[in-house]
Specification:
Elements (H helix, E strand, L loop, with lengths): L5 E3 L10 H4 L5 E12 L3 E12 L2 H21 L7 E3 L3 E7 L7 E15 L5 H10 L4 E8 L3 H26 L4 E8 L13 E2 L14 E13 L2
InterPro entries: 26kDa_periplasmic_antigen, SIMPL/DUF541
Keywords: Signal
Organism: Vibrio amylolyticus
Length: 231
């Protein structure tokens, strides 16, 4: 029986294995394995911002700094470690009015600061967000649900991806009446980001708090493999 020179499985349409540039000269088979595991989040991280616009730069800075100080103070009273709070520097920009004729007119200043808070116990997330609202924070940029032992879950997802790649390779080789040889090449790129819950909401009015206790994270991984086919 004539040996197939190349047998390629492309599930997503694009593969990180550069077959055309680095294809081996011997008969081979290429697969992509996907793996995922689910995890219940037990911690979180959220980023909030306070923005104020006033006539003077000094007043805008004072308003923003007061909100940041009050928020950090309340979090500290609740037992949040200073190491879990990251506050950015003040960002101050002039605001102009641009008439149809004439030069731009300075109408005030806009000041803003961003804070990121690490929540060690997910049960406290809503409480900390309520504190942000009460202290004058007017924007929530992101809420990231996380698991404490991310490495463990990522390793589990990676093993599932390896199993998937091997299973596909065996199935394809059998289907085409070929005998699968050893692994010739493995391409793996660690996922650049973890599953997150992203939100951007206005906090001008108090809204009913959402519960995150029943949320589930899906952690994914993938691996690209080139197998030899026996002659």
């Amino acid at each position: 029986m004539k040996i197939l020179p190349i047998l390629t499985l492309a599930l997503s349409g694009l593969m990180s294995v550069n077959v055309s540039a680095n294809a081996p000269s011997f008969p081979h088979l290429v697969t992509t394995g996907y793996g995922e595991v689910t995890a219940t989040p037990d911690m979180a991280e959220f980023t909030v911002k306070v923005v104020e616009s006033t006539m003077t730069a000094e007043q805008a800075k004072l308003l923003v700094d007061n909100v940041v100080s009050g928020f950090i103070g309340k979090l500290t009273d609740q037992g949040v470690s200073p190491d879990s709070i990251n506050s950015s520097n003040l960002y101050l920009t002039p605001q102009y009015h641009y008439p149809k004729k004439g030069k731009p007119e300075l109408v005030g200043y806009r000041a803003s600061r961003t804070m990121t808070v690490k929540v060690e116990d997910l049960a406290n997330l809503n409480q900390y967000l309520d504190i942000a609202l009460s202290e004058g924070i007017n924007q929530v940029d992101t809420i990231r649900l996380k698991v404490r032992d991310e490495v463990k879950y990522q390793q589990q997802a990676r093993l599932e991806a390896i199993k998937d790649a091997n299973s596909k390779a065996r199935s394809l080789a059998t289907g085409f009446e070929q005998e699968l040889g050893g692994v010739w090449r493995i391409d793996y790129n660690m996922p650049s980001s973890q599953p997150v819950l992203m939100r951007s909401v206005s906090m001008d009015a108090k809204a009913e708090s959402n519960s995150y206790q029943d949320s589930t994270l899906v952690i994914r991984d993938r691996v690209d493999v080139i197998y030899k086919l026996k002659d």
